[in-house]
Amino acid sequence: MPNKKNYTKAEVLALCASYMSEARVDYVQKAADFAERAHIEQIRKSGEPYFVHPVQVAGILAELKMDPDTVITGFLHDVVEDTGISLDDIAYFFSPTIATLVDGVTKLGKFKYKSHEEQLAENHRKMLLAMANDLRVIMVKLADRLHNMRTLKWHKPEKQVIISTETLEIYAPLADRLGMNQIKWELEDTALRYMDPESYYSIVQLVDSKRDERAEFIQTTIDELESQVEGAITGKFEIYGRPKHIYSIYRKMKDQGKEFDQIFDLQAIRVLVESVRDCYAVLGIVHTNWKPLPGRFKDYIAMPKANMYQSIHTTVVGNQPSPVEVQIRTYEMHEVAEYGVAAHWAYKENRQVTAKQEQKEIQDKLKWYETLIAYQEEVNDAEKLMKLVKDD
Ligand code: MN
Fold first, then answer.
1. How far is the CA of 247 from the centre of ligand 1 (A)?
2. Average pLDDT, the chain
3. pLDDT at residue 392, as a whole number
4. How far apart are the CA of 42 and the centre of ligand 1, in A?
5. What is the pLDDT of residues 307-318, one digit of tens each?
6. What confidence tens digit (pLDDT) does each residue in 281-326 have?
7. Catalytic residue annotation
8. How far is the CA of 338 from the centre of ligand 1 (A)?
9. Mean pLDDT of 72-91
């Protein structure tokens, strides 16, 4: 995830069948068929039947193993806005909960974005209030935005810039807040491609031109580390290199006025292990073999980020031409690092918890979210509320 696959309805249902009971899949299918009929006469800008869009949104949510109600909302999220179906119909044919979710997504979508500072704050306020009610509304909205960004090429250039600006200013930060990094990265990279194509493609080219050279020395470091970790820990582990995302390189060049060649951690080495104890064992090996750069060591395992992210980061110098960042975390932490809230929310058949309890659990984990709920009634000032989201 996100694998940018173009799903058919049957493929989304198959994906659901991999983690839901047959009865639940039947229920999802009912929603899929319902949405297909409702959208039958609509065509997307791409010339495809409109139904293709809700199928992809539901597909993204199923990749995240979201619960049946959320996947169903993915299928139904545009029917009230675009067809003759009412919320009462949805409550009648499905459930009041699903009607509420669809209503939340529709309301968020209705809000017209303006890049004016105050309007931006108002946008955030709406998002936050929707989030306070049910985080699943935001999940569907993020999946919706992700697919709209993937198909942005069908819009006029001016519209592309407006939608991309909105994505960078609202949706990517929201995904970040929820720890949904996979989605955040794709939103950011795609938005940059439309807003500043020149910068985007020049970074892509620079990354490509040095790829082999970098890959070679990263591999040497990985091999060396691998042989040492093998003897030191008993559990399973995995070591691999991962390139940085285009947008994060862009920001570094812009914010810190750096040239491409001055950004040394273009690639990071990631180590996945089974236990926290093994994380620190690997850290010991890394720091014994390579010299850590001062000020670059961060222990987000002992002190998780506000969005639940956990990992150890360190940047070391040694036998390579330039310093390299090493990230060490458990497999479980890795799931949370990539999918955030969704990793916690992953649906488990037969688990006796209600959506309300789930919401409470996540609230306990996301400290900022708890604060938001506590403040949302008293903080009517949109700007103050936005500040709350921006500050950690
Ligand atoms: Mn939509």
1. 25
2. 86
3. 45
4. 13
5. 889 999 999 987
6. 999 999 999 999 999 899 999 999 988 899 999 999 876 667 889 9
7. 81-82
8. 23
9. 94
